[in-house]
Amino acid sequence: MIFIIFLLFLANLYKANAENCNFFEGSWVFDISYPMYNSTVCPFIEKEFNCLNNGRPDQIYLKYRWQPQGCKLEEFDGRDFLQRFKGKSILFAGDSLTRDQYLSLACLLYTSVPGTNYNMTRVGLISTLIFLDYGVTLILDKNVFLVDLVPEKIGVVLKLDSVAQRSKLWLDHDMLVFNTWHWWTYKGAQQPWKYIQIGKRLLKDMDRMVAFELALDTWAKWVDTNVDPDKTIVFFQGVSPSHYNGSEWDEPYVKNCAGQTQPLLGSIYPGSLPPALAVQKKILSKMSVAVKLLDITALSQLRIDAHPSFYGVGGATGPDCTHWCIAGLPDTWNQFLYNLIL
Ligand SMILES: *[C@@H]1O[C@H](CO)[C@@H](O)[C@H](O)[C@H]1NC(C)=O
Ligand SMILES: *[C@@H]1O[C@H](CO)[C@@H](O)[C@H](O)[C@H]1NC(C)=O
Ligand SMILES: *[C@@H]1O[C@H](CO)[C@@H](O)[C@H](O)[C@H]1NC(C)=O
């Protein structure tokens, strides 16, 4: 009798553990069945992310599966996903790391029903992919700051307290996936604005982390006011890490991600988490709509091997250690997305 009670106790302990399990804590394990799909069969991958097609010679980086500590992730089931979103639409808004995840999702879905009919169109900054046999629509709004970037007489103005320009596009979807961070750090020629505007004040520049927080707060207010959480699931992508300094992962003589062919094993990245992640978490915690954070930063930090490096658009500008190869890491980000809607 006592033995049976003990067994029940253990079973409950296990169940509680699985329920409380944090998907985002774990490690990368070698899995011969990976990648999740054959990227040469996916028609959507842009050159920037198409590492195999660009001649990347090593392929071990494709063979790592994320293993959470103490629970199991369901495999991404593209057919099931298409059924669940039949007649529905999903919008991604953000920078090129959002495009990375968007195209990965497009490939995960397409390769689950290869040869299925689709219509991909791109008008300006907006891409639309429709899986015609399912009526599933995937929209990408390339929108690097989320808040407005407006060309005016004085020059381009970044308006920290307005999302009016593009937010109409965000209405009436069944799932929204937002992201912004990387462009907030850009200076000099890469910086696309001349002034920052807060209310009526125009500034030449300001603390970028403060600007980022003000902008996220504007975005959060829009979501809280305009999104019906009973109809729409909202995700935030989190901070995708770059690898331009080997000191961060205790290899001081390694300049960047070029030539890295395997992830860091174990679950601890020697470098620290980017402060922008704490800002995102702070803003999300204050919202009335429960936005699910894809907390991909730490687990992606371990993937020093998964960037395009010289097998993206690369070349003159040096290796790309910011984006990620497709197939590859963004497939796991979408696996989290899938597990969080099950
Ligand atoms: C991927 O698909 C291509 C084209 O159909 C094929 O030649 C190749 O063998 C496939 N690769 C794998 C690993 O299945
Ligand atoms: C694809 O979408 C475009 C733009 O909406 C439209 O003009 C075209 O007719 C569509 N093609 C198909 C096959 O549905
Ligand atoms: C790399 O990181 C180390 C440790 O954080 C730092 O001391 C060093 O200046 C960095 N190197 C570059 C080139 O940024």
UniProtKB/TrEMBL annotation:
The keyword Transmembrane applies. InterPro entries: TBL (IPR029962), TBL_C (IPR026057), TBL_N (IPR025846). Residues 19-72 form the Trichome birefringence-like N-terminal domain. Keywords: Membrane, Signal, Signal-anchor, Transmembrane, Transmembrane helix. It comes from the Eukaryota. Residues 1-18 form the signal peptide. It is found in: Membrane. Residues 74-339 form the Trichome birefringence-like C-terminal domain. Pfam families: PC-Esterase, PMR5N. It is a single-pass membrane protein. GO terms for cellular component: membrane. Belongs to the PC-esterase family. TBL subfamily. This is Trichome birefringence-like N-terminal domain-containing protein.
